[in-house]
């Protein structure tokens, strides 16, 4: 599967491991619930670590561990649920997270520009055909009225 990362289309090298699946080596992401439960085991395996945040998860619950995490996936259950915008803004602004923040799930390609303004730098779209559309929206505007993370 391909994603957009840092304004380029690239291959996704990460694997999501569900809460009831066995941990594996390599670059994996897990839910915040699994991270809290199995943190020590996850840290001992080989590979990079990512955390998938649901819109109901509190970013503050992850704040002390951000230096151990390479990827944060922000889940969009539907495009009308904007809580992940706030999560991205908190990660970049309040907690100064420097790693990859990836939007996943039910967001629209047209939202990529606005997501980038709050700190998202990677996009995994459900519809692979929309990758080029999302990539093109990242350059929609050259003048901004508000401050942002980018």
Describe the structure.
The chain has 150 residues and is of the alpha/beta class. The protein has one domain. 25% of the residues lie in helices and 23% in strands. The chain has four helices and eight strands; from the N terminus they run ββββαββαβαβα. It has an eight-stranded mixed β-sheet. Strand 1 and strand 2 form a beta hairpin. The longest helix is centred in the first third of the chain and has 13 residues. The protein is globular and about 45 Å long. The two termini are 26 Å apart.
Number of domains: 1
Question: Low-confidence spans: pLDDT under 50, at least 5 residues?
Answer: none
State the major sheet. Answer: 8 strands, mixed
By DSSP, the count of extended strands is 8
Radius of gyration: 15 Å
Please, how many helices?
4
Side-by-side strand order of the widest sheet: 2-1-8-7-6-5-4-3
* First-to-last CA distance: 26 Å
What is the SS-derived class?
A: alpha/beta
What is the N-to-C order of secondary-structure elements (H for helix, E for strand)? EEEEHEEHEHEH
Overall pLDDT = 89
Helix content: 25-40%
Shape: globular
The proportion of residues in beta strands is: 15-25%
Question: Which helices and strands occur, and which strands form pairs?
Answer:
Layout (H helix, E strand, L loop, with lengths): L1 E4 L2 E4 L3 E2 L11 E4 H13 L4 E5 L17 E6 L6 H12 L5 E6 L6 H6 L4 E4 L5 H7 L13
Parallel strand pairs: 3-4, 4-5, 5-6, 6-7, 7-8
Antiparallel strand pairs: 1-2, 1-8
Protein name: DUF934 domain-containing protein
Organism: Methylomarinum roseum
InterPro entries: UCP030820
């Amino acid at each position: 599967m391909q994603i957009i990362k840092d304004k380029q289309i690239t291959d996704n090298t990460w694997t999501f491991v569900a809460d009831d699946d066995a941990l594996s080596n390599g670059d994996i992401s897990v839910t915040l619930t699994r991270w809290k439960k199995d943190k020590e085991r996850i840290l001992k395996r080989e590979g990079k670590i990512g955390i998938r945040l649901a819109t109901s998860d509190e970013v503050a619950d992850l704040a002390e561990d951000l230096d151990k995490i390479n990827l944060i996936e922000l889940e969009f259950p539907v495009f009308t649920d904007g809580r992940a915008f706030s999560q991205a803004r908190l990660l970049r602004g309040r907690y100064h997270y420097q790693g990859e923040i990836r939007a996943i799930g039910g967001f629209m390609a047209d939202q990529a520009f606005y997501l980038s303004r709050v700190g998202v730098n990677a996009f995994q779209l459900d519809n692979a055909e929309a990758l080029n559309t999302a990539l093109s929206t990242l350059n929609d505007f050259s003048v901004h009225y508000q401050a942002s993370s980018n």
